[in-house]
Amino acid sequence: MGRYFLKRTGAAIITLIAASIIIFGFIHLIPGDPVYVMLGDGATPEQVALLRRRMGLDEPLVVQYLIWVGQALQGDLGQSIFFQTPVTEVIREGAETSILLALITMVWIVAFGVPIGILSAIRQGTWIDQGLSGLAMLMASVPTFWVGLYLILIFAAGLGWFPSSGYPSIFEQGGLANLRYLILPSLALAAPNAALILRLTRASMLDVAREDYVRTARAKGIRPARVVLRHILRNALLAVVSAFGFTFAALISEAVVTETVFALPGIGRTVVQSILRRDYPVIQGVILVTVCLYLVINLLVDLSYRLLDPRVELE
Amino acid sequence: MRQALPPWARSALSRPLTSLGVVFLLTVLVFAAFSPWIAPYPPDQIDPANRLLPAGGAHLMGTDHFGRDTFSRLVYGARLALLIGVGVVGFALASGVPIGILSALYPALGRVLMRMVDVLMSFPSLLLALGLIVILGQGVFNAILAIGLIYLTTTARIVYGVALRLRAEPYVEAARSAGAGTWWIITRHILPNMISPLLVQASFVFAFAQLGAASLDFLGLGAPPDIPSWGNMLAESRIYITRASWLLLWPGLMIVLTAFSLNLVGDAIRDRMDPRFREMVGK
């Protein structure tokens, strides 16, 4: 276990270093002088001189990279051009919305994707299975923003059950009731991802059902429902849990669109606005943070997977 | 009765939904090829007196906020959908196939290349595409590159897996011991046996390229607004949805049905494929 832990963590760190080089290169690949890219066109000569010294722009690129990484490790991701505040501050402001949105979406994905996938597998080959699998494929083919716009049209503009846009913090007036602002966005975001988890649950259940120990269990005369619950489901869900890491990363990415549709003050919408405002330090910071998050989540998923199933070997 | 039919007709009957999907895809193809003859109006003909008209009368699917004919724009939108799909699939295959095959044949090179693919995969896909658009600028060609980069990674991974298995096949070993060169093995043994996994991957990539391009259009970072793409139509009609909900319906349906049909076709090819490779190709 210790060796596996070290090897897997080492691989994640190497990936992170390589990714950070790409993200560092981002500012330098944008046409124009990096200082003006970072400060915007309205920079004063003093600001320019200061940033030039801070980024070590007269030094070789390797040194510049090390300076940048050093500052990032100390929690300094630079300054937002638009807000004139630290990038970490901008990210922190959007974090509550984005994290809550992702969590509620995960709840929908688990609540819909897993049970329906199980049902589909148990009824394999019947019209129920075919209908559900077809529905899943249809849901995976729908753009999240289109679902979002229809949800707004029906449940916000039409029926008035939920607010159509925005999200006041749960720490402000309204408290936890403010979560109703996230119901429609999370449903839109959940649709295609629940479809993927449904397909995965079904496939994983059918895989496990072919294992020898399942045949043995059936031959011993254990009741079919018990075989499904104790022998198949438990093992099938292991593979599903390991997919949650990828799903979570997909959510961060797709939330960019959903947050824009529902005008939510999250990190994703900040990225889009930053692109339109040419606020490059914010874009760079958000990409760095999400890549770190993705790698950490996947590392944790892999390690816990190994704890649950010691047979898993590192590829 | 059924036995009298030719084989293609029999397989079409056994998968009615997929057959409908193929018909829909052919319709999109016809729309794209013959847009000027099918569309009743030029796609950018503005008519302020007839803005936001519902379906019916002179306008089959109504008009948008500039009085432009929705059906005509839908027909012309098929062109961009096809261009994006072909472009992204072309880019993903042209880059992913050589990377995957070379990595499988030369393990030392493979360790480096596949590690680089892993690194690219650690970026959330849409953020990777957005980052590239920031560097390259907005436009149809750059949107194709940005979305293509996402599917370069998945294509390279799949090709790598399939090529590794093929490399270990006895007939490939036999060819090699008979003195066949690398180029011969790639073109005679590996590529021809890879065609069905590549077809499946191509149809899925084509489908998801539509969704990716629509998202970029919606964010205002894809095709320029003067190009009638389905994504742009949705983005523009956004503020009118309560007054003119049909503006939301048609372009969205085109995107969904195109992606759904392609997914159905991909699934159908996968089911007929060599079972050893079936689980490698997916999403």
Describe this structure in words.
The complex is a heterodimer of chains A (315) and B (283). Chain A is built from twelve helices and no strands. Chain A is mainly α and 315 residues long. Chain A has two domains: 58 residues, no CATH class; 227 residues, MetI-like fold (Orthogonal Bundle), CATH 1.10.3720. In chain A, helix 5 crosses helix 8, helix 5 packs across helix 12 and helix 7 packs across helix 10. Chain B is mainly alpha-helical. In chain B, helix 2 crosses helix 4 and helix 4 crosses helix 10. The mean pLDDT of chain B is 85. At the A-B interface, helix 1, helix 6, helix 7, helix 10 and helix 11 of A face helix 5, helix 6, helix 10 and helix 12 of B.
Instruction: Report the CATH superfamily of the largest domain in chain A.
Output: MetI-like
Instruction: Give the largest interface.
Output: A-B, 46 and 40 residues
Number of helices of chain A: 12
User: Radius of gyration of chain B, Cα only, in angstroms?
Assistant: 22 Å
Q: pLDDT below 50 for ≥5 consecutive residues: which ranges of chain B?
A: none
Largest pleated sheet of chain B = none
Name the poorly predicted regions of chain A: none
